[in-house]
Amino acid sequence: MSKRIVVLGAGESGTGAAILAKTKGFDVFVSDFGTISDPYRALLDQNGVTWEDGHHTESLILNADEVVKSPGIPLTAPLIQKLQAQRTPIISEIEFAARYTDAKMICITGSNGKTTTTSLIYYILRNAGLNVGLAGNIGNSLALQVAREHHDYYVIELSSFQLDNMYDFKADIAILLNITPDHLDRYDFKFQNYVDAKFRITRNQTADDAFIYWAEDPVIDRELKRLDLGATLYPYGFSCPNPLPVGEDELALKGRHNVLNSMAATIAANVVGIRKDIIRESLKSFQGVEHRLQYVATVRGIRFINDSKATNVNSCWYALESMTTPTVLILGGKDKGNDYSEIDDLVRSKCHTLVFMGLHNEKLHEHFDSFGLNIIDTNNLQDAIQGAYKAAKEGDTVLLSPCCASFDLFKSYEDRGEQFMTAVRNL
After folding, report:
1. Each residue of 177-206: pLDDT tens digit?
2. Which parts of 102-252 fold into alpha helices (H)?
């Protein structure tokens, strides 16, 4: 009898894992407690994968030999607890997919800058003519690519949720950009649990593998003193030798944080063996990532910037730090246990107006009302943009950098960013 693989969650990663499992001859069943979207239903049907949505049939799940879990399902979910109690192995899609490829794995994690750095490394490797795939939190799932394509390299953006259920996986090059409090609601509100999840990117690494990290991050520095890592270490930062083959003013990506992201990408490209001239030209021509400090339009002399990808406070800190004009900041959404004090100094020095945009703005009021700034309270995008537009003066910037997840009013941070850009262009 063939081994039974049950996939929980049928988004990008779950559907990819199911198709890969099917191509490898497993007995596959997919169960999603929500509604599986039409494109994924079609993919599962085309590949002959049995699925259900809207509920979990426990008798068809608890008999699994192994479970591939969507990163969005917390370990505290009752069904996961039952599987753990009976010692059913639970793994991530990345862990599963990596069993079936001998490609080199370049993996990036961190609280902020993951997507930009991952996209930049992928861009450099493609410009060098390498056969490379882009996976993880961006692009097609690693499992789907392993099932259908062959790549020599994968550049993979990894969240802490994906790292949680990775055990035998090994990154040939692991990059840890930074660690600041995020997703604490998933980690018992214990920062160390989140830190431990991030450091799982170094699991199974040997001296033949590279660990690239920001040397000036106090959390990373503290952990490195405590841990005995097997990898060869490559620190970067403003206190380290500068690896960049171009001047900071020549970088396509602007802002201090993007200098750091470019350093990490350059070291990764050097480890792979990319020629310096290719790295130089790539750093000068890279276009950046959607919804991350993305210029939208200038209306009546007011610049509008879409930073919807700023789903935590530290990400908003980087955005505010890069502002060079008086700023109207739009923030708010689903709070993940945020500590807003990190941006206090920047809010006071850069912003004259705060626009709250969420279903529950009480915590924002509690923190910022005493600052003496103009505060506009809204609970929808249209009112937030109209309020910001009226409050801004010629030469100002309106910055959407929410600090929060999008799930109170939007389907995703991409949906939030798209709606913001559309509304701005209609002003």
Report:
1. 999 876 666 667 788 888 999 999 999 999
2. 114-127, 142-148, 160-164, 191-199, 218-226
The structure's pTM equals 0.79
277 and 386 inside one domain: no
Q: How many domains does the chain have?
A: 3
Containing domain of residue 222, as a range?
Answer: 95-285
Alpha-carbon distance of 332 to 336, in angstroms, equals 11
Count of beta carbons in the 10 Å neighbourhood of residue 111: 24
pLDDT value, residue 182: 65
- Of the residues 91, 117, 139, which one is the last residue of a structural domain? 91
CATH number, domain at 131? 3.40.1190.10
For a pLDDT cut of 90, what percent of the chain falls above it?
Answer: 82
Q: Which tens digits make up the pLDDT trace of 42-78?
A: 999 999 999 999 999 999 999 999 999 998 888 889 9
Torsion of the alpha carbons at 416, 421, 423 and 425, rounded to the nearest 10: 180
117 in the same domain as 251:
yes
Res 25: pLDDT: 96
Please name the residue that has the structure tokens 């049907």: 45
278 and 127 in contact (C-beta within 8 Å)? yes
> Regarding predicted confidence, which is higher, 268 or 335?
268
DSSP letter at 355 equals E
